[in-house]
Amino acid sequence: MPNLNSKILVLANWKVNLSLAETLALVKKLLTGVAKLKGNFELGLCPTFPALPGVAKLLQKKKVLLGAQNVFWKPNGPYTGEISPSVLRELGVKYVIVGHSERRQYLKETDIMIRQKIAATLAEGLTPVLCVGETFAERQAGQKDIVVARQISAALTGITLSPGHELVIAYEPVWVIGSGRAVAPEEAFYIARVIRQSLIDIFSTRMVDSQIKIIYGGSVNTSNIASFVGRGKLGGVLVGGASLEAKSFLALLKQL
Hints:
- By secondary structure, this protein is of the alpha/beta class.
- Helix content is 40%, strand content 17%.
- It is globular, with a radius of gyration of 17 Å.
């Protein structure tokens, strides 16, 4: 599977699971541990919005990157409670998760909203992490290929990927998130090929291979990460629960 660089991308999505103090304590432990690792990976941490300034300060001059869990599609204006991509850029954010299944399900995010967020994120020079994946019912109905291809098309048709822009597609089957059981690696590789073909329908092959990375998310842990990433496999992982405790997360990173 072609990647835009040789490093394995590991993104930690902490959702709303840590207090501010817990977040900063975890980052400090991770920075100490990661400094001792020699794996070929790029690490990004996605804390809650209130924690971003504190985490950004800790990550200054470090090799660990900052990510955000969401974004709004306008740089400013009367949008109470939202956060603009320009503010994320000011904070030093690189990666922005867009279209996570929890936001699609609980907050009713639409394909139009997701596409607007991707365009706004790219316009600020940030890297969107577009999440796609099928529900269990869609899987049982044999619709997973169609669902993932439709989500890719709906989110990216009309999007301009300029030179220097990067994009990450995270395949996260909805039915495995938080379940403790991941899909078989072969199934993830198959969907990655579906994703790549869907991308080639929108962008040039050269652009897909050089500017877009396909990763996997959904119950990634120490015992299965090596099955998903590495030479000839996926370009990285989006980690949830396994990234909430320093010891277990560092053990996961040691596998790379």
